[in-house]
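Problem: given the chain below (226 residues), write out its structure.
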Amino acid sequence: MLTIRFHGHACFGLDLPDGTSLCIDPFEAGGFGGLLPERPIPDRYSRVVCTHEHADHNATHAVPSARRIAQQHREPGLHIDTFTAPHDEHGGRLRTGLVSLLRIEAGGATIVHLSDLGERPQGPLLRWLRERPIDLLIGPVGGYFTLDADGFAEIVALVKPRFALGCHSAEDGARLPDLDDLSLLNARLGPAAMGATLTVDEQAGWALDGAPIPATQQLLRLTIAR
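Solution.
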């Protein structure tokens, strides 16, 4: 069984069926002068991967037990490949560079983490997103620094993942200025299912806190893991 937990901002943890675990984009609790979420990320992961080198995404010291792996990674049960894209709609010139989008194949699921993507996808990026079906698409919805809710909803419409999950918003514990509220995405994609953890079983399917997710439910919302 694959278990997915949301730790706030853009940080997610994956527990894989074979016991391997992966932390994506860790932040330092209370970082940026107290603007980042104050709840520490649990030091329970064996691997960590960072989509880019901004301090709110690459605080690997916050998970000292984890071994940092490359964005392009292959091991039994865990495959990661990546696509480089701009942090903003100006080719990365406004928000200091590029980010790496992650496509993770693990536990019978394909998960794409859009990092701090700042532009609508087209051309090669859109083709990469459409290369194979996406079970879970995770993306920023806060705006200003990244895509906003409209931008993420547009990607959902173009890519048609089985499920979508917004992050990097004003509701996820970060107090960064100018971030939009996640409710804007809820309004675009429909009502959200609530739950603390998302589990995937290749035979039993997808569930939030043990309750099966209807196949028609597209938007998910995980509460910050306790």
